[in-house]
Design a protein that fits this description.
about 260 residues; alpha/beta; Rossmann fold; 11 strands; binds adenosine-5'-triphosphate
Amino acid sequence: MSTARPEANAPTDPTRPPAPGEAGESAAAAGGAGDTGGFGEGDGLDARIVVRRGMFLLDVEVRVAQGEVVAVLGRSGAGKSTLLRALAGLLPLDAGRITLAGQVLDDPRERRFVPCEERPVGVVFQDYLLFPHLRARDNVAFGLRSRLRQGRRGSRTEAESWLTRFGVGDLADRRPAALSGGQAQRVALARALVTRPRLLLLDEPLSALDTSTRTEVRTFLRGVLPTLSAPVLIVTHDPMDAEVLADRTIALAGGHQIAPPV
Ligand SMILES: Nc1ncnc2c1ncn2[C@@H]1O[C@H](COP(=O)(O)OP(=O)(O)OP(=O)(O)O)[C@@H](O)[C@H]1O
């Protein structure tokens, strides 16, 4: 495990596709869930996250049990994406500690920092960030090949089975430009889950979708999320998403946790 800490507040571009070895592809790294062959071992997520970005300070405590789905609500600028980026390893903590399934991912006091590509964390961003030049099958297989070192044939077969599970198996040969928003979001979710991360982060996964697709994907997620025994954090502006998808809600304002809306 690397303990080198990146420069605090290093600029990252959330609009670019995840590079090989980045957290936009779910990472099941050495010591991650790939070792156990499945979700759900360990103690869930336990984190105190303190991150400064310019004048903004995020300071929150988050605990999510295995199999629990927690919605993170808050107005624009509240710190929701900053929270997810810190958990994914895209922003280092300034103070606090992140422990996932018993493994310390970030603790500045102990100078410990697991880089994003080594974190067993799956991330789905609002605009999918699929690799545009890869077919759906290879988008999903990418993490298996790069992180788990699986061979081409086996990783493709496994990718196809995840696409089928998510109802888009017949689209395996398509590139992202030939997928609808809902289809692309399913592929992105398959890609995030294929390496069996121990934490799933969904950043506004429905916000780029039109109303009917949004309802379709929300219903789909409602079926899938309870089947994962990993902790899930889902950032959303929409209380309906929280109501339908989450067991519990965290509300942020100005970088701090507040009582959730009733
Ligand atoms: N690179 C940066 N440098 C300085 N400040 C930043 C940077 N990125 C974000 N911020 C600030 O951090 C605060 C929290 O931003 P963040 O993106 O986490 O909010 P959010 O709740 O996800 O908002 P939205 O719902 O609009 O995505 C904002 O005040 C924002 O201006």
